[in-house]
Amino acid sequence: MKQARVTMEVGSDGVAIITFSNPPVNALALTVFDGLKEMFSEAMRRDDVKAIVVTGNGGRFSGGFDINVFEMVHKTGDISILPDASVDIFTNMIEDGKKPTVAAIEGLALGGGLELALVCHARIAAPRTQLGLPELTLGVLPGSGGTQRLPRLIGLPKALEIMLLSKSITSEEGKKLGLVDAVVPSDELLKVSRQWALDIAGRRKPWVRSLHKTDKLGSLPEVHDIINTARQQAKQTAKNMPQHQACLNVIEEGIIHGGYHGLLKESKVFKELVSTDTSKGLVHAFFAQRATTKVPNVSDIGLKPRSIKKVAVIGGGLMGSGIATALILGDIYVILKEINSEYLLKGIKAIEANVRGLVSKRKLAQDKAEKALLMLKGVLDYAEFSDVDMVIEAVIENIPLKQQIFGDIEKACPPHCILASNTSTIDLNIVGAKTKSQDRIVGAHFFSPAHIMPLLEIIRTEKTSPQVILDLMTVGKTIKKVPVVVGNCTGFAVNRTFFPYTQSAHLLVNLGVDLFRIDQLISNFGLPMGPFQLQDLAGYGVAVATTKEFSMSFPERTFEYPLVKLLIKNGRNGKSNGKGYYIYEKGSKPKPDPSVLPIVEESRRLTNIMPGEVVNEACRVLDDGVVVRASDLDIASVLGMSFPSYRGGIIFWADTIGANRVYRSLQKWSELYGNFFRPSRFLEERATRGIPLSAPASTSSGARPRL
Prior knowledge:
Elements: E1 5-10, E2 15-21, H1 30-45, E3 51-56, H2 68-76, H3 85-95, E4 101-105, E5 108-110, H4 112-119, E6 122-125, E7 130-132, H5 146-154, H6 156-164, E8 169-170, H7 171-177, E9 182-183, H8 189-201, H9 220-237, H10 243-257, H11 259-274, H12 277-291, E10 310-314, H13 318-329, E11 333-337, H14 341-360, H15 366-373, E12 376-379, E13 390-393, H16 399-412, E14 418-421, H17 428-431, E15 441-446, E16 455-460, H18 466-478, E17 482-487, H19 494-510, H20 515-525, H21 531-538, H22 540-553, H23 563-569, E18 582-583, E19 591-592, H24 597-606, H25 614-623, H26 630-641, H27 650-657, H28 659-673, H29 681-689
Parallel strand pairs: 2-3, 3-4, 4-6, 5-7, 6-9, 10-11, 10-13, 11-12, 13-14, 14-15, 16-17
Antiparallel strand pairs: 1-2, 7-8, 15-16, 18-19
Helix pairs in contact: 1-3, 5-6, 6-9, 9-10, 10-11, 12-26, 13-14, 14-15, 19-25, 28-29
């Protein structure tokens, strides 16, 4: 692994080129800050240096501050680890230095990387360079002057958009806004930057200190209105997160009291935010997502992924059409198979609608949309399956049907073809029981809508080959999914963990709690919607099918309730027919339907309360070795079930509030309502011994790995 370093070369023209290197994205590690300070000090002292150009090595300026430092702070609680670069190096040494500095930017300048460029007296960029300040996604704010300098260079409205939405822009857009002084070809970047720096030194170009600019800020009443509007929007879009309001406060402070005052406030608030649970959760989620690529006996045994160019999808319903959409957008040729022409046409139209929807939301260019749709072909039989690299079965949760399909595709497909199922609950050993190709069978569980939701749960059986797992992980990355490899059991990792969530909600309703209040409280916690609105969205057929599967596998902790069947009998099927727990009308938000309450009352009368507990089931998933590591379940809960990322994931959150607290609550509820809430052995052991739930399995006594 290459070490971070900073070098300086002084040319015969009197320009010092300071280059920092920290592969792969030139992150600003603590040693890089030390190196920058040393090199800039030397350049300012030397008589043979007239001007300075600062740049990143290897075609990238910088991906930003080294996030590993945040993790160090979170583990040690020592805030003094953070560098005081904002005033000491960036402002006093570079921006207020006696020699001009030009930033030569290429590839990307994000976070602290862009903040370094902002303190320079000009910014020259290569084409299509990515510029942004995404710090709020990690629970903090730009901590090296970004909150003060960006509004002064491009105006407050656009600066707020870039910071509050963590939205990056290209160097071309940056040029129009005044953030970039010139966009030049990569091979001319250093030459133009050198000359620009000399021109500033010779007073032929303006010597601009961005912290001192005020011409683009607008009047104080305008600033007040813009910031107040942004505050109200942030209350809606960033509930429970402190960094958005803190960022707005710091920006406003600097505009009212001056840029230098704003810098001091920014530095103080930055350090406060780093220590919050929100930052801890978001940083954990960031590293958890990175860790998913490390799968024992798959990613560490020297295998190389095979090329997957052609994939067959069986079933053009909601899931099949979504999966096919994701694949064609990833430039993978798709054969969509249905049982008749009517269903096939419906599936193709759904895919076209998915693609058009992305175009209308400006998430996909029209030419790319047209190209993607050319990658799709519909069929009614297996004749075209003779050269496919993978098949993904996406039919209804019906065991005999799935077994029949797997028997058929084993005969129709080439011997190297991966045989995947999108089943969300059924044990893969059952799905593939009638095939001989057990090493090629794998789960490819997408989440709805499949072309949008970022998680791909990859399920391996005891016989699935490492090559098949690696190939599917690679396909996942190609189609912009985060692949998480899990073991094989009913519900796998995500649905098994969250099944008790829905169960507990129904138990509470049958005990007399208002279902709309439950939904509201869950939304307040940070999920996009509560369990009953989610059931409306998914359709009641899914609830009936999953309850059946789970009750067979985990009868001792399944709560049987009649409510969903009563809703179906009453002619309700959620959002699909406009009526469920909520009323759905085009163009308006879902409204609670009071007429559902008599049906709820009937369910309460019919239910014999026998008896919750998402963390409890997550502990069982860990104890059974269904996931490689606790952080895999964290990122899967965030990306698959929309558990709030700022809470770090289900296990991280449970450790934050304390395993003992969870354990004591479940003990109390199990005494009141029975075995449904009985704490798992794993939770009891961790809570009583004071061991974090996320600690490796070896710390606990009896993990039985399925991986």
